Amino acid sequence: MQLKIYNSLTAEKEIFKPILDGNVGMYVCGPTVYSNVHLGNVRTFLSFDFIYRSLTHLGYKVRYVRNITDAGHLTDDGDVNNDRFVKQTRLEKLEPMEIVQKYTVDFHKVLDMFNLLPPNIEPTATGHIVEQIELTQKLIDTGFAYESNGSVYFDVLEYNARGLNYGELSKRNIEELFANTRDLDGQGEKKNPQDFALWKKASPAHIMRWNSPWGEGFPGWHLECTAMSTKYLGETFDIHGGGMDLKFPHHECEIAQGKACNGTSPVNYWMHANMLTMNSQRMSKSTGNYILPMQLVSGENDFFEKSFHPTIVRFCFLQAHYRSVLDISNDAMLASEKGFTRLMEALKILNSIAPNDEKQSGFSLEDWKTKCYDALTDDFNSPVLIAHLFEAVKFIFALKDEKETISAKDLDDLKSTLNAFVFDVLGLQNIEENNNEKLDQTLQVLIELRNQARKSKNFDLSDQIRDKLLAEGIELKDGREGTTYVLN
Ligand code: AMP
Ligand code: ZN
């Protein structure tokens, strides 16, 4: 089985060869934590969660690093009034690190709701200022960067003059970039408009600031990711991911910084996830065309007819390939809900199927498994994988109707393979089972309260609890071992 990955750098599907056999180092750009993540952001993180789960399922030992951009995802002009962190601190009347904490907690809650696994390392930009200063110094020492008025810029023309190619990832030509730029960022400080900040001098009003050899300032956004990925994954690592929109300038600059610092390409496989759209327009806070995850899950919005469980949202996202645009709509969500229900029904049926070793089955389990793994290893093709899972669903319904048979060995294999794909790889959750667990926990609380009422001789209350539950079809039974319940 060979894993193929589409590499944005070469624009080709390539056979994946990890640096260290059996191991994968993967870095994904994390969120800027100055406000709540919208559903579009969730799609990108979910795409990489699926990739992480798939790599693990395929037997790789993955070190997955996803950072938190907490130092300020700053505008290159360094104007404090354009800094989104600063704006938010003023708006909410909070300290910058309070803003960071508030939205980091929210980010984790949201990803947990969609059953995303945590990364192995989650470094913060502010925790790596020393490393960023060191990298900046190294770039100055090697002539790739220059100081200007307390700020330090990467010299893009110098980089190209040394035979390197700024623009190799985004396929931009440096001459065109110069010709088309109307960017006045750092005007007067930079040698060229395309030069980007490695370190920015802090104006007196700037709150997040650190000492450096160039005076008080703060790091450039692109350098944060280079510092953290190098520290935890090395000068060259296997996979770097992020949303399509980060290709330029963010990832282009990361390549330039890595090559200039270490003389080697920092990443072997660049992976970019495509955008979530709504009303056929990219979801984005700045245009107002967005929905927050909680609004979709609670039903408190004007766009969707009803509320949807997070796992249905997850299923909907995975029905599109990570490199395709996905337009979220009421119809798409309803279709996903229907498909998901059928899939769960099939899994339930599978537990009650009796095997038959006498008859030959018309369904080749081996062929089916091969097709599933071919889809998974073909650049993580989740929609094709899901289509194959539904072939198994069809077969399971035929088993139920006794139109098909399955041997005992194949039945075990089908159960474990299907469960692994549905729960471990796709990361879906069985809503019904979860609900049952919740019901059980709630009933245990009520039984405990009834026991307390009885102990304090409040028989009115204890009888009320028993009778009201009975009216709802839940019968409490008192025995020597304690109280149990029966659902009628
Ligand atoms: P940010 O916090 O703005 O850096 O965004 C976090 C991640 O969400 C980045 O990888 C972005 O590329 C990604 N992203 C932003 N908007 C969308 C969208 N509409 N659909 C999918 N991913 C998005
Ligand atoms: Zn990044």
UniProtKB/TrEMBL annotation:
Gene source species: Chryseobacterium indoltheticum
NCBIfam families for the chain: cysS
Binding annotation for Zn(2+): 29, 225, 250, 254
A GO BP annotation: cysteinyl-tRNA aminoacylation
This protein's UniProt keywords: Aminoacyl-tRNA synthetase, ATP-binding, Cytoplasm, Ligase, Metal-binding, Nucleotide-binding, Protein biosynthesis, Zinc
Protein name listed in UniProt: Cysteine--tRNA ligase
Record InterPro entries: Cys-tRNA-ligase, Cys-tRNA-synt_Ia_DALR, Cys-tRNA/MSH_ligase, Rossmann-like_a/b/a_fold, tRNA-synt_1_cat_dom, tRNAsynth_Ia_anticodon-bd
Residue ranges annotated for the Cysteinyl-tRNA synthetase class Ia DALR domain, each copy included: 371-437
Sequence positions that bind ATP: 285
Motif 'HIGH' region: where in chain: 31-41
Any one Gene Ontology molecular-function term assigned to this protein's record: ATP binding
Motif mapping: 'KMSKS' region: 282-286
Alphabetized CDD domains for the sequence: CysRS_core
Cofactor note: Binds 1 zinc ion per subunit.
One GO cellular component, as annotated: cytosol
EC number: 6.1.1.16
Family membership: Belongs to the class-I aminoacyl-tRNA synthetase family.
Catalytic activities: tRNA(Cys) + L-cysteine + ATP = L-cysteinyl-tRNA(Cys) + AMP + diphosphate
